[in-house]
Design a protein that fits this description.
By secondary structure, the chain is mainly alpha-helical. The two termini are 33 Å apart. 51% of the residues lie in helices and 11% in strands. Its EC number is 1.15.1.1.
Length: 194
């Protein structure tokens, strides 16, 4: 059974209201609840009925990935919010500058990625090419690219910003950058051992 984590970022942030963060966290909790429900149903499903056109196995497996990725995406998102923005330092900043030309170029690219995405934008480490990329993920269960580790998760579904920003996604993304906790992101990057 999966249990919802608690996050210090579920509070009033710089330009993002406590209501938005609280409602957003409730959505995360609903993914946890739904994942557990689907996982329990999968323990009882008739595996012999599996069929690519339609079967309970297929339906449950597809929705399990949606719920589980909804959990994981939001855990990355909530964990690295609540900081003071700015820039990273050390190895992460050096890698961003190497792969994007400058921190500002990376930020501009992630903002464009977020504006172009329907659900998520990520900064991720690609293990095969050994570099950072910004990726779009349109739904919870479409990851950017296989063999990548996400480091920054920018939720651009309307639920992440509509209460505070209406349709002004660009303004929300600016506030997202201002609330990043780079120490969390740098820690995860260092843990990769690249």
């Amino acid at each position: 059974m999966y249990e919802a984590k608690k996050f210090e970022s579920i509070k009033e942030l710089n330009g993002i209201s406590e209501r938005t963060m609280t409602e957003h966290y409730k959505l995360y909790e609903s993914y946890v609840k739904k994942f557990n429900e689907i996982d329990e149903k999968l323990q009882k499903v008739d595996l012999e009925s599996a069929n690519p056109t339609f079967s309970d196995v297929r339906a449950l497996k597809v929705e399990l990935s949606f719920a589980l990725n909804g959990i994981k995406n939001h855990e990355i998102y909530f964990e690295h919010l609540g900081g003071e923005g700015g820039k990273p330092s050390g190895k992460l900043l050096a890698q961003i500058e190497k792969d994007f030309g400058s921190f500002e170029a990376w930020q501009k690219d992630l903002k464009a990625t977020g504006m172009g995405g329907r659900g998520w934008a990520w900064l991720a480490w690609d293990w095969k090419m050994e570099r950072l990329f910004n990726f779009i993920g349109d739904t919870q269960n479409t990851y950017p690219v296989w063999n990548c580790t996400p480091l920054v998760a920018l939720d651009v579904y309307e639920h992440a910003y509509f209460i505070d920003f209406g349709i002004m996604r660009r303004d929300y993304i600016d506030k997202f950058f201002e609330n990043l906790d780079w120490s969390v992101i740098e820690k995860h990057f260092v843990e990769l051992g690249v």
